[in-house]
Amino acid sequence: MAQDVASRPGLSPWRMVVGLGLVSLTVDMVADGARSVSGPLLAQLGASALVVGVVTGAADAAGLTLRLVSGPWVDRTRRYWAFTIAGYALTAASVPLLALTPVLGVAGLAVAGTLLVIERTGKAVRSPAKTVLLADAAGAVGRGRGFGVHKTLDQIGAFLGPVVVAGVIALTGEMWPAFLVLIVPAVVAMILLARLRRRVPDPSLYRAVAVDAGDASAPAAGAAPVSRPDVPVTFLLFAVSCALTTFGLVGFGVISYHLEATALVPLAVVPLVFALGMLAGAVAALAGGWAYDRTGAGTLLAVPLLVAAIPPLALAGALPAALVGVVVWGAAVGIQDSTVKALVADLVPTGRRGTAFGVFAVLQGATTFAGATLAGALYPDRGLLTVIIGAAQALALVLLVVVLRRQRHAVRG
Questions:
Q1: How many other CB atoms are there within 10 angstroms of residue 344's CB atom?
Q2: Dihedral of the CA atoms 317, 279, 85, 208 (nearest 10)?
Q3: Is the residue at 319 inside a domain?
Q4: 351 C-beta neighbours (distance < 10 Å), count
Q5: Is 380 helix (H, G, I), strand (E, B) or coil?
Q6: Is 377 exposed, middle or buried (0-12, 13-18, 19+ CB in 10 A)?
Q7: Closest Cα partner for 6 from 234, 202, 283, 192?
Q8: Spatial distance between the Cα atoms of 382 and 401, rounded to a whole number of angstroms
């Protein structure tokens, strides 16, 4: 009996999914609170639209490409908790330091850019490990539902953080106090993470729960990974398709720069616009996760169509169109971040998921940087930007159709 108790995780699968979701909620209050004003912050420090695109694109790219290192490292060491905690700590520490940048004179822009890159580096350190932790727990409750609920909580944090930032800016007329206020959710996140680590030191035990629940694809805890190619062709095609959609996701750094540069909204309202996008992402993530479990990966076909509509709407000269564009942007991000991860977890063997998420992320990172730089460079010629992104989404849609057909054939075979 004692052995049976020891072989069970200290939290139910749903409590673990929700617990990790609450950690993401509080950390995303910090990260996305800062991201919601990254464009105006850099602009106030002297950046042009191109510089904003390069800096925010480089930060997002670092958060993705560095997973090619952290993913395999996680697989080799199996130190999922250590990587997760270290990555969250980097974000928790770097964002409040942005409060110092307005008083650093000519060095302020360089320091702000560095801190934004460090914050995204923290995401690169934690994401492969955290996703493996989540995949283990979500496998016992339905991977689409598990990732969808987690992403919804994540997006709620991404909504609340900008609201807090907007409130502080409205009260003080300055951005720097908002970064200091974000220390509070950062501390809460680290406390929650420590408690989860103490209750569930070995998340692989959820794999046995998944088997008991009838998930035949879930290996038993401690079982050797299934022998398959490290990078299946279907996975590679899917990664390229998603990289193309990521290319078209005009970063909010450029969108926020546009909102302030064209005086569509006051500075204090810019974070609220970001929050609107995150709210749309939360709804889309939850709906996408449930649809994935019920109807399969066909849900992802909507993503390239949404992304193609972002440039002409989000960068429009009229506020209603820009707001619709931000909603579309948030919905695309929400669906992609929830159901994409669920499909990667289904396409790749358990023991190689960290590596797979690393490979997946490096492709997304390269196209994130390219897309953000292109958006900044072509900001004066948004018609050409729309055409280029539309063509990329057409190719992404074709590749995604091929992936879904290959997946169906593999299941039938």
A1: 20
A2: -140
A3: yes
A4: 18
A5: coil
A6: middle
A7: 202
A8: 29
3-state class percentages of the chain: helix first, strand second, coil last, to nearest 5: 85, 0, 15
Contact 331, 306 (CB under 8 A): yes
* Residue matched to tokens 């770097």: 94
Q: Which amino acid is at 94?
A: S
CATH, residue 73: 1.20.1250.20
CA distance 21 to 170: 29
Residues 6+ apart with CB under 8 A from 173: none
Answer yes or no: is 333 within a domain.
yes
Per-residue pLDDT of the chain (413 residues; tens, 9 = 90+): 444 445 666 788 888 889 999 999 999 999 999 998 998 999 999 998 899 999 988 888 888 788 778 878 888 888 999 999 999 999 999 999 999 999 998 899 999 999 999 999 999 899 888 888 888 888 777 777 787 788 788 878 888 999 999 999 999 989 999 999 999 999 999 999 999 999 888 877 776 655 444 454 444 444 444 334 445 788 888 889 989 999 998 888 899 999 988 989 998 999 999 989 888 887 887 787 778 777 777 778 888 999 999 999 999 999 999 999 999 999 998 887 777 777 777 777 666 666 777 677 778 888 988 998 999 999 999 999 999 999 999 999 999 999 888 877 765 55
Q: Are 150 and 17 in contact (CB under 8 A)?
A: yes
* Pairwise CA distance, residues 220 & 236, whole Å: 27
Note the residue count of the chain: 413
Give me the number of domains the chain comprises: 1
Q: Domain for residue 220, yes or no?
A: no
Helix and strand totals (H; E) in the chain: 19, 0
Structure tokens at 5: 């108790």
Give dist(CA 275, CA 258) in Å, integer. Answer: 16
- Domain of 276 in residue numbering reads as 11-200+228-412
Strands (E), 230-386: none
1 located within any domain: no
Q: How many alpha carbons fall within 13 Å on the CB side of residue 113? A: 20
Torsion of CA 333, 290, 123, 20, to 10 degrees: 150
